[in-house]
Amino acid sequence: MSASLSESSTGSTGAHKPYLKRKKSSLGETKIAILGYEVVGKSALSVRFLTKRFIGEYDHSAECKYKHSAIVDGENTAFEILDTRSLSGDCGAREDVLRWADGFMLVYSVVCRKTFEVLRDLHKKIEEFRRGTTVPIVIVGNKSDLAHMRQVTQEEGLKLAAELGCPFVELSASEDVTKVVEAFYTLCREIIDYKRRSRTFLDRVFGAFGREKPSS
Ligand SMILES: Nc1nc2c(ncn2[C@@H]2O[C@H](COP(=O)(O)OP(=O)(O)OP(=O)(O)O)[C@@H](O)[C@H]2O)c(=O)[nH]1
Q1: Is the model more confident about 14 or about 113?
Q2: ipTM above 0.90?
Q3: How far does residue 131's CA lie from ligand 1's centre (Å)?
C-alpha cells in the first residue's frame, strides 16, 4: 500500500478557478471528492486514510489532491482523492469538482446538526449536475468519539442514507482507522460497480455497431 502526499495541488485560495479536468478513468482508477460543510473533518479523513495517522490540525486555506494505491478486493486500485475546501457554505461542490469525480464522500459532523442538514441539498445538487444519473455516493458521520456533544443520532444518519439510497458509515477519524478505510473502500466498490454497469449498458447499446461483420 503506498500513499503519495506530494501531489497536493491546490487551487487558488480565494476565488476558485476551475482547474480540474474531467478525464475518463479506467476501472482500476477511482477519483473521490470529499464534500461537506466547514470543519466536519474532511482533511482528517483523507489524511487518516492516506497515512493512517490522525494529526489534529490541518491547513484550511488550501484544497489538496492526493494519489494513493491500495489493493481493494484483490484488485490494485489507484485512488485520487480531492480534499475540498468549503467556501461560503458550498461544501466544496464547485462545478469542476462535480464534473471531475467518479464518486463523492459526503461528510457531516455528528456534533453539528447544521452540517447534517445541508446534505440533502448537496446530494440534490450532485444528482442535478450529473443529469439525474445515480452517482456513487457514501455518507459519513464523523466525530462519533464526541458522544457528550452529539446532536445527530446514528439512526438519523441511517435514515437519511436509506432515503438517498447511499451506504452510510458513522465513525471517528481520530479514533477508528479501520472504519475510515472501510468508508473509502465502500465508495470505491460503489464506483467500480457503477462503471461496470455503465459499460455493460453501453456494450448492449453500441456493441453491435462497433463489431465488424465476419467475412463470408
Ligand atoms: N474529536 C474529533 N475531532 C476531529 C475528528 N475529525 C476531525 N476533528 C477535528 O475537527 C477539526 C476540523 O477538522 P478538518 O479535518 O480540518 O475539517 P475540514 O472539514 O477539512 O475543515 P475545512 O477544510 O475548514 O472545511 C480539527 O480540529 C480536527 O482535529 C474526529 O473524528 N474527532
Answers
A1: 113
A2: yes
A3: 32
Ligand 1 atom at minimum distance from 175 CA: 31
Cell triple for 9 = 495541488
Tell me the per-residue pLDDT of 118-149, one tens digit each, with 9 for 90 and over: 999 999 999 999 887 789 999 999 999 999 99
Q: pLDDT (tens digit, 9 = 90+) per residue, 70-97?
A: 999 999 999 999 999 988 889 999 999 9
Give the start-end residues of each E strand in 84-208: 103-109, 137-142, 168-170
pTM for the model: 0.85
- Helix or strand or coil: residue 72? strand
Phi-psi region of 53 (alpha: psi -120 to 50; beta: other; left: phi over 0): beta
**Helices 119-129 and 154-164, axial angle in degrees (round to 10):** 20
Instruction: State the DSSP code for 15.
Output: S
Angle in degrees, 0-180, between the axes of helices 42-51 and 177-210, rounded to the nearest 10: 90
CA distance 14 to 87: 9
Would you say 103 and 190 are in contact if contact means Cβ atoms under 8 Å apart?
Answer: yes
16 alpha carbon – ligand 1 mean position (Å): 22
Nearest atom (ligand 1) to Cα of 86: 25
Pull the grid cell for residue 111. 456534533
